[in-house]
Amino acid sequence: MRKRRKGNLLQRMIAVLLSTVLVVGTAEGAVPVNVLAKESVSGNTLEITEEGTGAESVGEETETESGTEGTGWEDMEESGAEETDQEDMEGTVTEEPEQEPTEPVTEAEDSENVGEIDDDEPGYDLDTDQWSLVIKSDTGMANWCNDRENYKYYNIKNIEIKEGVTYIGDDAFNECDKLVSITIPSGVIRIGARAFYSCKLITGIELPGTVTSIGEEAFYRCIQLKEIKLPDTVTSIGNGAFNDCFRLESIEIPGGVTEIAG
Description:
The protein is an alpha/beta fold.
């Protein structure tokens, strides 16, 4: 009986000691489980049981804390990547090519540039109020022959050809029905084909002593033409140059003429 009591007493002391250790350990967080010690009624053995609730809770908390920490590191890494990209964008500066300084244009240079414009262009002046035409150069004659269809050329009444012009172009004044006067300066060498075709109001034309050739039908159907004098310099007269000039009674052909077509 004494041995049994001593054994029971020893078991109880061990149980109390373990309980104390477990309580203290649980309070300090060192023991993650609840340990229950109880004495077996039937035997001398001491059974110790563990409840898994605490361990599982601790495990879940550990995993949660670990996951939270992991998320923090990922957020920090992403934030750092964004800051790095922003710094790279801010640090990238597109360098523009240096432009050489532009020197100011002086008044002298400016006036020289203006002087490069050809004052003779287009080389003719047309006054549509008075319907008078002035041809100032050979270029003006060529331009007028090209441009005449852009105007009501048939309304022209007076024509002045300036000194320096050397020819009257083909069809230059063709069908200028209202033309009554024309001035042809010395220096004109050639009168082109159909130059005065059907200028019905012209009564007389004075040709300068420099004309050498008169083109075909140059004065065709100038029905009011009464007088024209050909200079001695004329050597060639084209076909039908004076056809249908009904008022022209006579014409003197210079001795230097070597060709009369038709």
